[in-house]
Amino acid sequence: MALLLTMPLEVLLSISHYLPTADYCKLRQSCKHIEASLHSSFAKEYFSKRQFILTEFSLCALVDISRSKFAPYLTYVIIAAERPVWGRPHLTPAVDNAVEATRRGRMRQEYADHLDLISLGQDLAMLADAFAHLPNLQAVGIRDFNSRTRFRDYPQLEWRSYGANTYYQHTGLLLAKPGPGPGTFIHGPTPLNVDDWPRYEARLFTGLLHALGKSGSKPVRFEVILRQIGLFDIAFNVPRFSEPIINPVLARLETLFLDLNDDQVPAMTTSGTNCSYYFLRVFLSKVPALSTLRLNFPGSDHHRTCEFLSWLASPPTNPIRGLLDVSPPSPVLFSHLRQLDLGKASISIDVLTGLVRKYDGLQGLQFYRVSLTGTNASDSSAKINLWAKALRFFIKLETPLTSITMERVLQDHPSSHQTLEVRFNDGTQSKTWRGKDKATGLKELADSIAIDWPADNLEDDSEDESMDDEDSADELDDDEGDDNE
């Protein structure tokens, strides 16, 4: 102990860096001197980002942290889309012993308390209270998964929500999470209402915005990262009575991540046409300060995604609306947008180029599992490398691009009824370009793209690609677009 007390702080920090969390905490609690010496590094590692759930136990911990010496370190609060549930009686097996009876009783109590917490709005009050006392809060997020990225315990332990382990100890069950589709679950018993995950996530989304507005907190990042069920369009409705509370929060946002789901009937406009993602379009008009926008479209319908992204790529309009008019909202103009990320989407090449042309201040693009489609018969039948074509078109724009990331991207090939993998000349499926020489960098990136064309349509030869690239500037002047982690 005497050696530890006289050890230089840099050496102590270096030693503690290799300890697992349990041993690190024991070292920290060994004496007041070491606790004080490790306070700053401990707080930054364990309290700069914390994940909670909508239970009284978990939210009480958040409120306590906001009133502790760790409050200044907490910059990112995540609320997990997991919750206690209760099984249907006819599906619940008989209770055979006292331990199981105690657990079953605790599960019932946790479920009832959770319902009361959210139905009475106490969760929003607690969130607002905590946010109001976090002076350096910069980001708020929603997730439906546990992370294994904590280096100290990797990969054995997950980075779980505060209160999740306690719930497991008391009930013997994991908290319920959304499964691959509506009404399914990864963990937990069958709930009373198996189809309400979209409603729960929608309430969580709007509830967090409402709590931020009530608290006066001013975060600049809002990140929704959902691997199972994305947000349905109804989540983006901001009712009139909430606008004075929520709109100021949205107006300050600079970074927005959204995972979307379109499994709902599209809105119908006055003219009789469908309008996908109607509430989202209105919502985006309330976030004019965005510099980073990430849109993921897992499982979304291709045509609805295309329609939405086409709207996003279109120039703003000033429609004259009647009192009962239901017209598509005017396309937004993010004049501060510098980074655009699209994921898990199928998008036409003219929409992609239209997006880059419209947001002419873009510095970075990222594509994850994006499938590029052609817009004419030549694109659909010939062996034209659409990604290379798009990159070469970007060179001709004045957009100040300095980085492009392509990961597991695809290309539709209708004539063979296939979606083709895009690889690079080093055999990988991902590549990033960064630099200031856009012309050289994008040309090299385009030249590195390789597509394993199907054996049919042998009459199409590679000449079509180079010829089409030369004429692409005229052909891609349309600003119409399609849709998108």
Automatic annotation (TrEMBL):
Biased composition (Acidic residues): 457-485
Signal sequence segment: 1-16
Region span, Disordered: 450-485
InterPro entries reported in the protein's UniProt record: F-box_dom
Record domain F-box: where: 1-50
Keywords of the record: Signal
Short name of one Pfam family: F-box
Record protein name field: F-box domain-containing protein
Source organism: Apiospora kogelbergensis
